[in-house]
């Protein structure tokens, strides 16, 4: 297992030696490497078993660093960066030639964000290069929101996991791109689109396309538990339809006490979507370890972070 540590210097040294390391962010843990090290970047793809056509997000420590990786930054992008960074927003920007094609999978845009986590911000400040970091899970499985989740996924593929506690937001960053007409939503995430639209006006929908997955976070099946999972708007009915099976429930705010279910995860007893989002993946991880026949997940109200949660649930339940 990789070693879980609080020692930022130790992890910085390891990254300087072209190793990869798991790092905390406010959304999910990332598997990080020096964007200019071909060795480190190849290792990220290898460790994740991630296809090379799936580009990586570049993490920087300040808005001012954006110009080091991007050029011709659209004014809307600048405005969003200034408003929401550090924070769970990734911007797709025209890339500088100096950014290796391996990072962007040959695209002419680069994905950039400033993560809002004190440990990783100080790590980034200390390093002379930005960090490319996809979520620190094997391709297709649930993203990790604790150092222990990361440790459970890997044997000794890389030396260190930098511990930053449980991720406060709990689902990945929202991804926004740009065209002549304005801003485009590529991936629903921890920043609610209503907040973004206050600045950009109505977002354009990215046209989903399995053949050309610009953002494989948009693949129909992704973020999936190993256990069969269904999405339900009528929990009682779904339970009745699965009598005799070992059922796990994942509910928004209700607690359900009925002999017919083996285990219940309530995401936010107080009905907070923020809290529900931060608990979502940890609850999926726990449910996945109960040897259940089926997980029944409750559909969320389709607004604010509820949209992002429904998006992840839909992908987790796609057959
Ligand atoms: O919250 C997050 O964004 C986390 C933390 C670690 O920062 N990272 C993350 O990375 O979720 P990853 O690799 O799991 O998801 C990145 C997504 C992928 O779906 C990828 O296809 C998309 O970003 N992406 C990256 N560069 C892109 C580009 N130039 N054009 C379109 N999509 C891009
Ligand atoms: Mg991911």
Blueprint of the fold:
Layout: E1 3-5, H1 8-16, E2 21-23, E3 30-34, H2 38-48, E4 57-59, H3 66-69, H4 75-84, E5 89-94, H5 101-104, E6 109-113, H6 118-126, E7 131-132, H7 147-153, E8 160-162, E9 174-179, E10 182-187, H8 193-200, E11 204-205, E12 229-232, H9 235-241, E13 247-251, E14 261-266, H10 273-288, E15 294-298, H11 305-317
Parallel strand pairs: 1-8, 2-8, 4-6, 5-9, 10-11, 12-15, 13-14, 13-15
Antiparallel strand pairs: 2-3, 3-7, 4-7, 5-6, 9-10
Helix pairs in contact: 1-6, 10-11
The structure holds threonylcarbamoyladenylate and magnesium ion.
Describe what you observe in this structure.
- This protein has two domains: 203 residues, Alpha-Beta Complex (DHBP synthase); 88 residues, Threonylcarbamoyl-AMP synthase, C-terminal domain (Rossmann fold, 3-Layer(aba) Sandwich), CATH 3.40.50.
- The chain starts with a strand and ends with a helix.
- The strands form two sheets. Strands 1-8-2-3-7-4-6-5-9-10-11 form an eleven-stranded mixed beta sheet, with helices on both faces.
- Helix 1 crosses helix 6.
- It has eleven helices and 15 strands.
- The chain has 319 residues and is of the alpha/beta class.
- The protein is globular and about 60 Å long.
- It binds threonylcarbamoyladenylate and magnesium ion (MG).
- The site of threonylcarbamoyladenylate has 28 residues, from strand 5 and strand 6.
- Threonylcarbamoyladenylate (TXA) binds next to strand 5 and strand 6.
Write a short abstract of this structure.
This protein is an alpha/beta fold and 319 residues long.
């Amino acid at each position: 297992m990789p070693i879980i540590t609080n020692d930022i210097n130790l992890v910085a040294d390891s990254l300087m030696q072209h190793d990869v390391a798991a790092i905390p962010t406010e959304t999910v843990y990332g598997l990080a490497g020096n964007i200019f090290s071909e060795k480190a970047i190849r290792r990220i793809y290898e460790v994740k078993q991630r296809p090379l056509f799936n580009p990586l997000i570049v993490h920087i420590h300040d808005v001012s660093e954006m110009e080091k990786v991007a050029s011709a930054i659209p004014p809307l992008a600048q405005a969003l960066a200034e408003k929401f960074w550090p924070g769970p927003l990734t911007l797709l920007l025209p890339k500088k030639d100096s950014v290796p094609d391996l990072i962007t999978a040959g695209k002419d845009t680069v994905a950039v964000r400033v993560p809002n986590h004190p440990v990783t911000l100080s790590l980034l400040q200390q390093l002379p290069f930005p960090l490319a970091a996809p979520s620190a899970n094997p391709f297709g499985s649930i993203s990790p929101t604790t150092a222990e989740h990361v440790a459970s996924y890997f044997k000794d593929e890389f030396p260190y996991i930098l511990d930053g506690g449980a991720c406060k937001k709990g689902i990945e960053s929202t991804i926004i791109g740009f065209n002549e007409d304005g801003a485009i939503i590529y991936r629903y995430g921890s920043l609610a689109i209503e907040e973004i639209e206050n600045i950009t006006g109505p977002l354009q929908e990215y046209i989903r396309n399995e053949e050309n997955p610009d953002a494989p976070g948009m693949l129909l099946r992704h973020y999936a538990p190993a256990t069969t999972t269904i999405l339900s708007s009528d929990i009682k009915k779904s339970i009745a339809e699965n009598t005799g099976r070992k059922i796990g429930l994942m509910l928004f705010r209700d607690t359900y006490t009925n002999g017919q279910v083996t285990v219940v995860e309530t995401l936010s007893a107080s009905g907070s979507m923020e809290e529900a989002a931060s608990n979502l993946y940890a609850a999926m991880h726990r449910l996945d370890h109960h040897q259940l026949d089926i997980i029944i997940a409750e559909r969320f109200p389709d607004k604010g972070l509820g949209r992002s949660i429904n998006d992840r649930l839909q992908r987790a339940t796609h057959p």
